[in-house]
Amino acid sequence: MKELLRPARLAPGARVAVVAPSGPVPEQRLQAGLDVLRGWDLDPVTAPHVLDRHGTFDYLAGTDADRAADFQAAWCDPSVDAVLCARGGYGVQRMVDLLDWEALRAAGPKLLVGFSDITALHEAFAVRLGLVTLHGPMAAGVDFVKNARAQEHLKATLFAPETVRTIASGGTALVPGRARGVVLGGCLCLLAAELGTSHARHSARGGLLCLEDVGEETYRLDRYLTQLLRAGWLDGVRGVLLGSWERCDAYDRVRALLVDRLGGLGVPVVEEFGFGHCDGALTIPFGVAAELDADTGTLTLDEPALR
């Protein structure tokens, strides 16, 4: 697995576009998130359809065509330095095939930030554009609006990435050891759903795989992991970082499943690494080479996430 191209860090005054490629966005939380970004001396602009709601499927932020058009226009706008997703939910897989990937590539490297359903875009950006992306808090997310740790870790990554080259999670080893590889991953159910599509990696070989999920029963987590195992997608993975399992079953039950499905890979596995759907979620860069030390619960990047 190759390292990906690192976009440039942000500087005060940078323009950032906030888009809604997935679920509908609460206006009050969006305004609070925009205020946070302005407090960082950024210039946030919102996409035209960021507050839309689909007329038939109210779990979507507007039509597929409008969500795709907003994303493409934001990315291709030369005045925009970063595209921040407002929230996750569901919907990226419905709009990702409508994007003009040649136009996105021609627009040059810039920053993409998001998590959860945005996993499908992380994969597509790795495969189609070869770009480092940030798995981090979203502009209208509860964690971003209300949690200082989530805000400060994302801010440091955006403005001073050399200060967060070592991400210390406080996590503990499920399987001890050290491993080197390229960081990738995201929401478990999305990685399973992306299998076989043209926008996703063929495998996690050579990678340090980050996994988390939300609101899933244990048997469903079992099914996703088993699907990845049966497809050979986990063959050659170098290490695994486990984030949050918010609103899933009791963690003891989830943990037993993670040991059962991942313990036989023969690679270091660290749990409770502090990313995903949890309070104070850390920002994890995807596409950079790093070393995982499961015993100390640290991920050390070879280079800062951004140039």
List the helices and strands and how they pair.
Layout: E1 15-19, H1 27-39, E2 43-46, H2 64-76, E3 82-85, H3 92-95, H4 101-106, E4 111-114, H5 119-129, E5 133-135, H6 142-146, H7 148-159, E6 166-168, E7 172-175, E8 178-187, H8 188-193, E9 207-214, H9 218-230, E10 239-246, H10 251-262, E11 269-271, E12 284-286, E13 289-293, E14 298-301
Parallel strand pairs: 1-2, 1-3, 3-4, 4-5, 8-9, 9-10, 10-11
Antiparallel strand pairs: 5-12, 6-14, 7-11, 8-13, 13-14
Helix pairs in contact: 9-10
Please give the radius of gyration in angstroms: 18 Å
Q: Give the SSE string.
A: EHEHEHHEHEHHEEEHEHEHEEEE
The number of E-state strands comes to: 14
| Mean pLDDT over all positions | 97
Low-confidence stretches: none
Strand order of the largest sheet: 6-14-13-8-9-10-11-7
Feature tags:
single chain, 307 residues, alpha/beta, eight-stranded mixed beta sheet, six-stranded mixed beta sheet, 10 helices, 22% strand, globular
Write up what this structure looks like.
With 307 residues, this protein is of the alpha/beta class. The chain is 31% helix and 22% strand. It contains ten helices and 14 strands. It has helices at 27-39, 64-76, 92-95, 101-106, 119-129, 142-146, 148-159, 188-193, 218-230, 251-262, and strands spanning 15-19, 43-46, 82-85, 111-114, 133-135, 166-168, 172-175, 178-187, 207-214, 239-246, 269-271, 284-286, 289-293, 298-301. The chain has an eight-stranded mixed sheet with strand order 6-14-13-8-9-10-11-7. Helix 9 links the parallel strand 9 and strand 10. Helix 9 (218-230) packs parallel to helix 10. The longest helix is centred in the N-terminal third of the chain and has 13 residues, at 27-39.
